[in-house]
Design a protein that fits this description.
The complex is a heterodimer of chains A (290) and B (221).
Chain A: H1 2-36, H2 39-46, E1 49-53, E2 56-57, E3 61-63, E4 69-70, H3 72-85, E5 91-95, H4 101-106, E6 112-113, H5 121-124, E7 128-143, H6 151-157, E8 162-166, H7 171-178, E9 183-187, H8 190-199, E10 204-208, H9 209-218, E11 223-239, H10 244-259, H11 263-274
Parallel strand pairs in A: 1-5, 1-6, 8-9, 8-10
Antiparallel strand pairs in A: 2-3, 3-4, 7-10, 7-11
Helix pairs in contact in A: 3-10, 3-11, 10-11
Chain B: H1 2-13, H2 15-49, H3 52-66, H4 70-83, H5 90-115, H6 119-127, H7 132-162, H8 174-185, H9 188-217
Helix pairs in contact in B: 2-3, 2-5, 2-7, 2-8, 3-5, 4-5, 5-7, 6-7, 7-9, 8-9
Classes of the chains: A alpha/beta (290), B mainly alpha (221).
Chain lengths: 290, 221
C-alpha cells in the first residue's frame, strides 16, 4: 500500500516537473527566437519560401491549364524567392482564400502573403505591409467596334449609357462617381458582366482595371479601355508584424524589381498579365526622389 | 452547340484537376465518415450506458459540437490548434474537424437507435439468462443497427457536402478545383453545374449503398 502510494507520488512529482520544464521552454523559446534570429534567417536555413496566395483570381493568382499556379501575385513571390536563393522556383505555396490572408500571416502558416491585398489602416494594425507593387483602380471596357469611343463619349451620352458591373452594395455609387447619369446593371459574376457587354445589353463594363487588362489580353483586338480610372487602391504583400529585418528584405527585393536589377523580371510579368510594356526607370537621379 | 463543345473542351483540358479534386473530396469524406462513425459509436454508447459523470461530459461534447457550424470547427482546428502548438496541415485539420462533427451526429443516432428498443427486450434477455455483454451483442445492437442505418446514410451524405467547406483553408477539393477552372475560363454556370452533378453522383452512390445494406440486413418478413 505504502509502496503503491509512493509510486503515485513519484509519478505525479515527475509529471509536474515535466510540465514546469515544458512551460518554461515554451515561454522562453519565442523570446529567444526573436532576439537571435529573424524570419529571414529561418527562411534561408529552410531553403524555400512559404508563400501564401490564392488560386482563383486571374490574372493575380490562378492555375494554368497544366495546373501550375501563376499570375502577378505569384510573380511577386518569385521575385522574393529569387532574391533569397537565386532561384524563383524555391517556393512552397499555401493555397488560401481571401479571408485567410491575415490569419495565416499572424499564425505563422506563411512567411509572406501576396494576394491582391488592399492596404488599409485597419489591416496595417494587424500585419506589416511591404511597399506597394501595384495600384488598382476601376476602369471601363468598351467593345473595339462599339458606339462609344472613350470615357468622354460615355459621359457625354448621359443616361442613355448602360454600364454592367459586379453586384455590390456600392456598385451604383461606384459607377456614378465616374458617370453620374449612367444606367447601372448589376450582375452576379464577372463572366456575366463581360457577356452583357458582348451581347450589347451594356455599353461598357466597369470592374478592376487589372481584370479588364487581363480579359483584353486574352481577347486581343475585341475590346478597348475607355481610358479613365478611379477608386484607387494600393496592393502590397504582407508579413508578420515585429520583424523589421524580414520586412526590409522583402521591401528591398520588391523595390529592386520595380526600379533596379530585377526590373526586367517585373516588366515581363507586367506585360504578361496586364498586356502593357513598362518604360525602364530613368537612369541617373533615383526615381524615388522625384 | 458551339458552347457545349467549348465546355467539353474545357473539361478535357481540366480533366486531371477535376479528377484530383474528386479524389480529395472522396478521401476527405471517406476518412471523416469512418473516423467519425467509430468515435460516434463510442459517443453513443457512453450516452446510453455511461455513468453519470461520463454521460455529462459526452453530452456537453455532443451538444457543443452539434451546436457549432462546421465552418467554425474547420477554422478552429486549423487556426486555434496551431496556437497551442499542434501544427496540422489543411487536409489533416479539415478531416479532424469533419470527423468530430460526424462523431457528434453519429453519437446521437446510435443513442436514439438503442433507446428506441423497448425495455422489455432487455428484461426478456435477462430472464433467459443472458449477460449484459450477450444482451448487447445479440439482442440490442443488431436491432439498433437497422434503426440507425438510414440516418447514418444521411449523415454520410452531409459529410460529403460539408467537405466543400475545406476550400476555405486551402484544401484543393472538388469545389476549389472547380473555382480554379472557372477563374481561368469564366464558364461559371457550366462548371458549377458540372461540380453539382459530380457531388450528386457521389451522394447517390452512398444512398444506393445504404439501401443495399438495408436490404441485406432486413429481417425477413
Amino acid at each position: 500500500m505504502t509502496v503503491h502510494q509512493g509510486n503515485i507520488m513519484t509519478i505525479s512529482l515527475r509529471t509536474s516537473a515535466l510540465c514546469l520544464a515544458t512551460a518554461f521552454i515554451l515561454s522562453a523559446m519565442p523570446a529567444a527566437a526573436q532576439q537571435a534570429t529573424s524570419k529571414l534567417d529561418e527562411v534561408l536555413a529552410r531553403g524555400h519560401l512559404v508563400l501564401g496566395t490564392g488560386s482563383t483570381n486571374a490574372p493575380w493568382h490562378f492555375k494554368s491549364a497544366d495546373d501550375k499556379l501563376q499570375g502577378f501575385d505569384v510573380d511577386m513571390g518569385r521575385i522574393v524567392a529569387k532574391a533569397l536563393f537565386g532561384d524563383p522556383d524555391k517556393i512552397e505555396y499555401v493555397n488560401q482564400s481571401s479571408d485567410a490572408r491575415i490569419p495565416n500571416i499572424t499564425t505563422d502558416k506563411v512567411d509572406l502573403t501576396c494576394q491582391f491585398m488592399t492596404v488599409t489602416g485597419e489591416r496595417a494594425q494587424q500585419i506589416a505591409f511591404t511597399i506597394p507593387y501595384y495600384r488598382e483602380g476601376v476602369g471601363l471596357m468598351l467593345k473595339a467596334d462599339g458606339k462609344y469611343a472613350d470615357y468622354a463619349a460615355l459621359k457625354a451620352a448621359g443616361s442613355s449609357v448602360t454600364i454592367s458591373v459586379l453586384q455590390n452594395v456600392y456598385a451604383e455609387a461606384m459607377v456614378h462617381a465616374a458617370l453620374p447619369e449612367a444606367t447601372v446593371d448589376q450582375y452576379e459574376s464577372v463572366d456575366l458582366i463581360y457577356q452583357a457587354l458582348e451581347s450589347g445589353r451594356a455599353d461598357a463594363a466597369a470592374t478592376d482595371q487589372s481584370s479588364l487588362a487581363w480579359y483584353m489580353t486574352q481577347n486581343a483586338g475585341r475590346y478597348k479601355d475607355a481610358g479613365y480610372g478611379w477608386n484607387p487602391q494600393t496592393y502590397a504583400c504582407g508579413v508578420k508584424r515585429g520583424d523589421q529585418d524580414w520586412l526590409n528584405f522583402v521591401n528591398t527585393a520588391l523595390h529592386e524589381a520595380m526600379t533596379g536589377v530585377e526590373f526586367d523580371f517585373y516588366a515581363k510579368s507586367y506585360k504578361t498579365w496586364f498586356g502593357k510594356d513598362l518604360a525602364p526607370p530613368q537612369i541617373g537621379f533615383p526615381v524615388e526622389y522625384k | 452547340m458551339m458552347d457545349f463543345s467549348a465546355f467539353l473542351d474545357q473539361i478535357w483540358i481540366a480533366r486531371f484537376a477535376i479528377l484530383k479534386g474528386l479524389g480529395i473530396t472522396i478521401s476527405i469524406s471517406a476518412l471523416s465518415i469512418v473516423v467519425g462513425s467509430l468515435l460516434g459509436v463510442l459517443v453513443g454508447l457512453s450516452l446510453v450506458y455511461g455513468n453519470r459523470a461520463l454521460r455529462f461530459v459526452v453530452r456537453v461534447y455532443t451538444d457543443f459540437i452539434r451546436g457549432t457550424p462546421v465552418l467554425v470547427l474547420v477554422l478552429a482546428s486549423y487556426y486555434v490548434l496551431s496556437t497551442i502548438g499542434i501544427e496540422l496541415g489543411p487536409f489533416q485539420a479539415g478531416v479532424l474537424a469533419l470527423a468530430i462533427f460526424c462523431s457528434s451526429h453519429v453519437g446521437e443516432i446510435v443513442r436514439g437507435g438503442l433507446q428506441a428498443i423497448p425495455q422489455g427486450q432487455t428484461e426478456a434477455a435477462k430472464a433467459i439468462g443472458l449477460t449484459f455483454r450477450q444482451t448487447f451483442a445479440y439482442v440490442l445492437w443488431p436491432q439498433a443497427l437497422r434503426q440507425f442505418l438510414p440516418a447514418w446514410v444521411n449523415t454520410a451524405a452531409e459529410m460529403v457536402k460539408a467537405s466543400t467547406l475545406l476550400s476555405v483553408i486551402g484544401v484543393a477539393e472538388l469545389l476549389l478545383r472547380t473555382q480554379e477552372i472557372i477563374s481561368r475560363n469564366f464558364m461559371s454556370l457550366q462548371f458549377y453545374f458540372f461540380a453539382g452533378f459530380l457531388y450528386f453522383v457521389i451522394n447517390y452512390s452512398i444512398e444506393r449503398f445504404g439501401k443495399y445494406v438495408e436490404r441485406k440486413t432486413a429481417v425477413p418478413a
